[in-house]
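Sample 3 of the quickstart, ligand (R)-mevalonate:
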Amino acid sequence: QASTEGTASGKVILFGEHAVVYGSPAIAAGLDRGARAVVTRQPSGPSTLRLGDGTVVADASSASDLGRAFSALLEVAPAIPPVHVEARCDLPPGGGLGSSAALAVSIARAAEALARSGEIRPEEGAAIEARVLARAAAWERIFHGNPSGIDATAAAQGGIFRFTRAEGARPITPRHDLVLCVGSTGHPSSTRTTVELIASQHAKDPVLVKRSIDAITSIVGNAVLAIEAGDMRALGDLMNMNQLVLSGLFVSTSELEELCALARSAGALGAKLTGGGGGGCVLALVPPSFRSDGTRDEAREAESAARILDAWRGAEGH
Ligand code: MEV
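Result:
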């Protein structure tokens, strides 16, 4: 097989970002949009990665983060022989929507398929997915320093799930579909920077940071119950609470707060930043609408979502 393809999803973190780095649970959901990579074998090295208009070479001492991350991904044992990768990502970089993990998982999947001549036997599936996650983790460590693995897990499996570092992902079955709007500040943010910001607060005052992490842990526990029970009002309140705690950890910004406030006044049941914060995106929960026979009224929900999106569009710079 001359070339193979791999795909992966973007993600939103519904609850628990940052606390998940310290071992607490978080809730994430995969997006339809994501990344796609096509990997072609090369007769000799070095391996190259083309993304957008640029090409990087896999090199552990590269000045480019992307070059080092690509090298780290390929070098996880068993190392991938020389390849050329054409990758595309439909998510904004630095938007908190998991673009980096989606790229890593799509490249790792395509590379694993190429290494096995495109044929993955069903009994090999789990072992290969574990290696895909290990390759994505090696890539993410270059960009993020101390990734929890939630982004790569969402990129690999999609769906909605609870995640901890120790236990990995456990699917959640929502009683009702969640309708969410994603709004962007238009400013990319660095997850590494915000993760390090909290790490330095933790080093200075571990008790204070632990209090916030504990608060997020109980918010996440209640959010799982609210999703399973279909209690959207409670879920919205919990999003607002999670946002308050994240602001207390200094990973929110005035723009993120403004987008959350606009969404709430436009009818959202709750709103919060998603991902690392410090820029990037917010999530808003659209109120569910039911017809008298109990079925979902999607048209009315779309109107509610449009009101939130309009409020964001009217805001400066969006
Ligand atoms: C980034 O999407 C989520 C963080 O919790 C970092 C991580 O879990 O690796 C901020």
